[in-house]
Amino acid sequence: MRLKIVQNEQIAKDTFVLKVDNPGLFEVLPGQFFMVKINDYPFPLLRRPFSVAGFSDTIDFIYRVVGEGTRILTTKEKGEFIDILGPLGNGFSINSTKKLLLVGGGIGVAPLLYLKSVIESEYKIRCDAYFGFNSKDEIFTDDGNIATMDGSAGFKGNVVEMVEDKLNSDVLVYACGPTLMLRRLAFLCFEANCSMQVSLESRMACGIGVCLGCVVQTADNRYKKVCVDGPVFDFEEIQWQAL
Amino acid sequence: MASSLVVKLGNLIFKNPVLTASGTFGYGLEYKKYMDLNKLGGFIVKGLSVKEKLGNKPPRIVETPCGMLNAIGLQNIGVDRFIEEKLPKLENLNTHVIANIYGSEVSEFVEIAEKLDKEPKISAIEVNVSCPNVSAGGALFGKDPDMVFVLTASIKKVFSRPVIVKLTPNVEDIAFIAQAAEKGGADAVSLINTITGMVIDTKTKKPLLANKTGGLSGPAIYPVGVRMVYEVYEKVKIPIIGVGGIYSSDIALQYIMAGATLIQVGTANFIDPAISLEILKGIGEYLESEGIESISKLIGIAHAD
User: pTM of the full predicted structure?
Assistant: First the structure.
């Protein structure tokens, strides 16, 4: 789909929001993603997977500039067209019988913002959100409790430390963020007998289950595709030590 | 009157020369949502081994300038499950389904070919002697002309329809290997498979792929593919299937002019799932605009004095 860019602006250090016209898609689940084509062929070659950070009149993505592709993306202006493929992947499943806890780190906060809005507006239930960033200048939301590694805003330290004492069997955690953060959180969830749905990132070429580039190792020593089996997994499915 | 896009490979007739390459098109079914598969000349399914293969550890892919490096390691469900689970869903398609096959020894290739010979929906098999990402078989076979000869001849004994041998570019003289395949009875050769490469992660100071090396594909490699098709065309009589970095009709036409009877679209499928049909459309438009009545007139035309 070639869609018109409604907004593409910097919202924090190295972090941009990209909003494109919603072509009338019936539904996009929180946790689903789109493959965004940066340029016409052939450079950069591959599309970039971006999870959905908001869905209404526009489809919203929040992305961090990490390489040449995302740097080029920052130069796209309102009114230009951009080719996106999706929605792809499975998305989070919402269980309203448990106490819901959102734990995000860095750019991994993006899909949780959309999840939070759906939980609150459609399911009318409360959820507590804890979002971690390296420092104040990287923060792109005020819709949750904030931790920063350098203590320049909110709680000083890792977001996982902030939620450690809140994990128990009545809680369902929704998480997305850097691998190390997720691994630590998974360990604590195992210990506390707490459920967790985790959205994983991976290098992928196609996003539709064909290239087999994005696989993660599962607890039974097999592989699952992040693009079509995920990106959201039950944390117990994943072999965390292999990540 | 529209120009004819029909091409032949052995006794197989293809409605057009556009195929999709193994490893970039799943089992075909994944693309049904994005395109009408019947419009393709045919498609080549993911490489099949005797038993299911899990493939290599991740990371398995990395992007490079105008290309990508992959080390998937032939992850597939195995020939039996393919026949049971996937093939019935392909039965009603009006296009050629070609099975790519892989083994770590000759007997494994033969076993798969025997099984597929009983499946009439499989129009041809493409023998993978060129995967750079597996420790046994793969490109090791493809670098040895005697092995290519023996393997091709062995498969020809058990498979009654066309046998295509897919060659590796990671050799000194690809035409020499193509001749060995032809001598073994191959009905066609596909070239090229990926070019072995490596990317080093400067943060960890180690190769980025878990397999260390991978196969380079994408637009970056098309000049190598065109050159190799050109060279092989002068040395063999059997049809050549050109593959490597095709992402536009212009590049597809270059392969055809170099000597390819058919072409395969590979990595570009990952970026635009329906791109092979765009390429097909562009080839047709070119023929019309040049006033050429048949695609066959273009095959190898770059060799003319």
Answer: 0.95
